[in-house]
Structure prediction request, 438 residues.
Amino acid sequence: MITRFKNILEKLKTINLDLENLRKNKEKLSKKRPYSDTLHLSFDKQINILLNQKIELENLEIENPLKELNESFLFTDQVTSSQIRQTKPLQEEKVSPQDKNVLAFLKEMPKTEIHLHMEACISKETLIKLMEKNKVKCDHEEISTLYKFKNLQEFVKLFLFILDAIKTPEDFEVIFHNLRSYLENNNIRYAEVFLAPSRMIANGLDFNEIAQTIDYLSSECSRSGGPEIKYLIDVSRTFGAENASKNLQKILKLKRHNIIGIGLGGAELMGPARDFKDVFAQAKAEGLRCVAHAGEDDGPWSVRDSVLELGAERIGHATSAIQDPSLLEILKNRRVPLEICLSSNIFTGKYVREAKDHPVRQYFNDGLICTVNTDDPEIFDINLSDEYFKYYRHLDFSISEIIDLNRQGVYSTFQNTPANMWNGFQKEIHNLREKYAL
Prediction:
């Protein structure tokens, strides 16, 4: 084992040196020559290939490596902020009395959330309930195993399994109940929620009926004093640009009040953002809001194309943007909000392995607009209040900075009067700070 461990680490050292050289040479390229864009793209692609090789090595689990090897060779890369995983028992974090006050404050703090998948608000219990209702063969042990995914591919497998369990528009009443409970438990007053209909349409569901159901449920929720919920329909990369265009035509034909825009989601490596340029152009011309997942599973060029080619108004994740300083300037100058999903990025593990190493700290320090989100709360067994606490505990965000993240989240929504919403939030937050001596 010692020899293999050494070999792995030597290979990682070589990759890191190659990455450093590639980045240095890329920075030396002129940005004004006709060939510059092509060369920059070539460098970016080679960097991403090496990062993928590095992540494959780092995913190897090493049981009880010798201490001297661990201390001599184990290192953290500044770009991916990751290291070889070691199998060790999880230890509960100690929570001080002050931390308990912070947790209580964060739970009661009014919030918004703008990167949240409706299908991923389905708990294991709800999934089993849906399958039994729809007379689908249901293996409880298999479902529990699916929820214990270890990488992005296994996560996608679970997500598709959930979609396949949805058989009727009425199923959304059950799902919506989960969604509303999650929002209310975290004092989320306004949410913009992704819905991915392509797989469900392929399974025989009628999009019009789905849209009518979720639109009605959202309106009833607001009328009954619950959170305000709007929807962004996923025009998934996974099914290609033609399918994305078909989904857009369905949205435009419906014109439902609570469906406010589109989001480019799906498997990022399967569909370059630029392939969806025409879809986004038509959506924007028709007054829909447009956002895109980018930089979660692909390099910074995915984020760049989403902003410059698609004109995306917000970027989901943007984790790999840290690799490209010039891209960070674009995001800052254009005031493009980033939908940060801290725990999600750690669970899927492409660029980040520990909360303390997430680039959101640098993004915030550099003046980029950052918002706090969960992405898939039931699947990851997380909630928005705890996500804010991780910023406090692991990324050294002060209470004032956390409140500013909350403010940025409010102003990054597509809500008609964000200033009015924030004024109301501020009064409540001021009272909560006094209540918990923060």
